[in-house]
Amino acid sequence: MKTAVVVPAYNEGKVIGSVISDLKKSGYVHIIVVDDGSADETFRQAKQANVLVFRHKINRGKGAALKTGIEAAKRIGADIVVTFDGDGQHDPNDIDKMIDKIEEGYDVVLGSRYLLKQHIPCVRRIGNALADIFTFLLYGIWVTDSQSGLRAYTRKAFDIIDTTSDRYEVESEALRDIKRYNLSYTEVPMHVRYTKYSLTKTTRQSIWSGMLTMMRLLISGT
Amino acid sequence: MNNITIYQIILAVISVIIISQRTIRFLRREKAQSLFKYLTFTFIWGGIALIALFPDIAHWIRRTFGFGDNFNTLIFIAFVILFVLFFRLMSIIERIESQITDIVRKEALKGIEKKVASLSSSSRRKKI
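^ Those are the sequences you sent over. The predicted structure of the assembly is below.
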């Protein structure tokens, strides 16, 4: 089965090169990077890595970037799409377990930071727990890591799932569609690498950004 | 409730119809129907139905807050107009945002076939 790895990236110029080379080292050849209107070297760095790169002229958010990447994956005939954050916090070695689960027959496989004992900053834990509870109350689907960006979708799933949010609420919206269309899903443990770089980025999940995401979920239509 | 008029009944019926339509749309989780919009519509139309059926509520509010009849009506109308304008603006902004995203995404995906072809030819060259 043809697996495409979609990497949304916004101002990740410092790390995007190593993210792509790690993916390549792990054996993934169909890598699609979507530069979401970065003001830094992201686009140039990704281009140099010799992968498929698409550029949003202006920043539209993670949801929009993922949608562009998944559309590109469809057009190159991918059977499985793996979404993989561009900030270097995911470990490419976790993808194999996800593909195994897809081959077992699941439509969607969700990576979860909380199924492994590892260091996760307290603010992230609280922010994510609030988002998990909120996602459950709004959409009736309980998962241990509703905001995880590491996910694998079969063709059936990525053809059906239709998210409309441009920003971070896209992760919860995808869960809504999993529930709505009765897609089979499972969670697998995933490693997460919180580096100084990823922790200082302002757009990451914190309590405040979690609350903003919740507000947008409420207002932007369920 | 002793001297209920036809206008009161009509207003109450209209409010119930609107609230039930909104409830059905919300329960079906239609894309444009958010909880915020739903609660606001229910609040406005529920208030209209209540005041139509129990005008004493309006008198009680007037007595409690010390408004004159006309002033009270004016505030109510102003609120309704502001809410309608607010939702109109919200939906216009949402529509424009989504149109911008569509244009940006289409533009980004332009020439994808060319990109795929050039990428595969360059990897072939490297192998050689």
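Helices of chain B lie at 6-27, 35-53, 55-65, 69-109, 112-127. Residues 6-90 of chain B form one domain.

Shout if you want it in another format.
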